[in-house]
Design a protein that fits this description.
heterotrimer; A mainly alpha (about 425); B alpha/beta (about 325); C mainly alpha (about 160); A: about 425 residues; about 0% strand; B: nine-stranded mixed beta sheet; about 45% helix; binds sodium ion
Amino acid sequence: MTPLLMLITILVLLAVGVPIAFALGVTALVFLIFFTDLQLNIIVQQLFQGVYSFPLLAIPLFIFAGSLMNQGGMSKRLVNLSLALVGMIKGGLAFVNVITSTFFGAITGTAAAASAAVGQIMIPEMNKDNYPPGFSAATTSAGSSLGILIPPSVPMILYGSIAGISVADLFLTGIPIGILVAIGYLIVAFILSLKNDYGSKGKAFSFKFLFKTFIEAIPALIVPFVILGGIISGIVTPTESAALAVLCGIVVGFIFRELSWKGLIYALEDSVRNTALVMFILATAGILGFSFSALNIGEQMIEPFMQYADNPIAVMLLASIILFIGGFIFDGTVMVVVLVPLFLPLVQATAIDPLQFAIVVIIVWGIGQQTPPVASGLYITTAIANVSMLEASKYNILYILVLVIALMGMIFYPDIMLYFPKLLIQ
Amino acid sequence: LPGGDEGNKSDSVTLTFAFELPNDHPWGKGAEEFKEIVENETDEEVKIDIQGGGSMGDSGSEIQEGSSVGSIDIGISSTPLSEINPYAEIFSLPYIFETREEAWDVLDGTIGEEVGERLEENDLKHLAWWEDGFRQVTNNVRAIESPEDFDKLKIRVPESDVRIDTFKELGASPLSMSFSEVFTGMEQGSIDGQENPLSVVESSSYYDVQEYLTITDHVYTPASLFINMDKWESLTDEQQEIVLKAAEEGRDVNRELNAEKDDELVDSLKEEGMEVNTIEDPEPFQEKTKPVWDELADELGEEAEDIIDKIQDSK
Amino acid sequence: MRAAHRYVNLFIKYLNNTMLFAMFIVLLLQVILRRFIDIPWAGAEEWALLTMVWITFLGAYQCTVEDSHLKMDFLQNVFTSKWSSLIQIISKSIVVWFLFMANVWAYPFIQSAGDKLLPMSKLPMWVPYGIIWIACILMFIEVIYQIVKEVKKIVISLRKKEHNF
Ligand code: NA
Ligand code: NA
């Protein structure tokens, strides 16, 4: 009963326009005041504890790195390379978009960074070529989920630190899964473009153009190897790899001579804002998490699931459904910090492969970034394309379907889905 | 709802009992014993609400802070205790205790009481010395047989000056690293090893990424069981006595289980493929780490020196 | 008043940017010192996390000033301006209540827990707690300021109505 009351309170607060961060904090506070006799001077401690965790440093630093790489011209060069690869096909810009997102996913750790970088270049280009703006926004938004599936990935760092599993293994698992999803996106883009006759043919394929753009993109293409290599060789820990990514952004920016002092300041300002948006919600979610323990809500929420404790598939399906529904209004970060720890004992009891459950959570996290109203993939892309989130979502449903198929594959056929990852890990 | 319907009986009080480790850890078992005794002997006038697994705070720091401001009633803290009571660090000096029994004698006697009382400055009433137990070293380079084997090993230690100094004196390169990064850090080789009680080595699956386990017994980590001072003073004399007794009974469960478990853990870690060796003669290690004692004594002053001497004499 | 408001915001924005860059430098130094110079910097994590606390809470202040916190304002868009102002006042008052409670409780808490030192950097805890407190006070003032503006809007629109009659 209490969990439901809390959810209703949060929704009412959101409906009158209270920012999400405050809606969470107010709800926690109201329930703590009315239903416990705890000393509430602890609220500052909980705000503090909500953000005082080393792996969370990956969030601001990867956001900063993404912004720097965008300012430093990396995204433009990756777009050119993708153009040389697939630009000649009819409807090719949609493919270029997906492939650029795949490349960019390999150099950044968050979806928002990926959608901003790719969207700023690709959406105007697609508009010029008469693609519907909703489709351009949806393609970019969906592509941005590759930012968290393909390593480096902030969600994987956070999940690994909370569940105590190897982030390096998670990263390696993300490579084939991310590529599979990217192929799924290409198929969707192909079907939609063909059916609706989107776009025109680009320049004919030329090896010269491919070679030129490849050379130009080399520094950007090296970045993923530097980051992954840094982790695998043990030079940096997964969280520190975010600082390595920032360093790459600065160095490559200077190599390209495209990163100016002004660009650096802009990247800092932009990153502070985007960091605070996520982290402040996480801070107030800290109070919410505390109220969960004080009111024993964790137990109340998990109890109904205990009857499925002998059925791994049921546990994963239920967890996915809860995270999927939560994903409409909560960022994945909040859910992984507040909700996922409630599931972990159950996962252990059910003997689900921790890697399998981790990827299930990350894929649902990616889906949550595509479902409005809170959809980090859609914010920037719809703003650039100047369409409503609903309009973009009409096209996005098919891309989301790709993620859902990947999710089902992960739940029902883990052996197939984890075949290549396990090879990589060994 | 907790505290709601049950709190109506005006003569009954519910105390929350929080710790960071899971409920099936010896702390949890000790907490159960504590709860049973308190509830039975006070005729449920005092009830205990056990909040294990970090649900009210996932570090000793957070829990001692919560207890001292009153959002938590009863709590346990081990290593972070020295943040609010630097004298507790004395018990964590390298090789100051060679056996469990030696440590227990000191902690349960006047010295333990004296150090425990210092928590009162933080509005905490110390109830009994529970334990985290002896800490052991794992690493990926070599089995530790003599202090020389520590040479240049990158060992992750918790955030404590004494611990860092200890490993410096042994010749290692100690460093602090967020607990959450330790597993991947050892797997990928950012660090060579770490030191923790065996229960942590097991529960964090360090056996998957570490080759050597050395039973060094280099540090004994006690843990203070404390209660918020206002809550303590609100109890009747009789209730206070029962709580103290229960704290000691719970402590004994905690200690017994720890001792039992350590033997089992060595076997199961061997089965997981770790190469285990034991340091039979700790003397060369003691010699090397002696400067750490002097440093701490210098830092804390005469009283600390006094306590160290008393511990030495008690052997 | 308005100038002071602008300078405070500008100053905090500038400090926030500096803190983010400092976070990067601290982590980079940590890696370099550990890996290449072999003198691990024990306090690095605490310093980096301190910048994080700063960016989170004073960044949240910046978002409050810019009114860019994530929210769903569909109700406000549905209604006419007067009603939308009223709903804004309600939602902002709820925020003010939360910040007020946080501020009231922060003081005794920092008094009792502020002396504790962070284990490696030896920084007293009142520093990070104080950052949170100051940010909450600044946000409190800012939201009150915004509420006053909304009230003025309503008053003006009511006056206009009177004239129409
Ligand atoms: Na990525
Ligand atoms: Na969503």
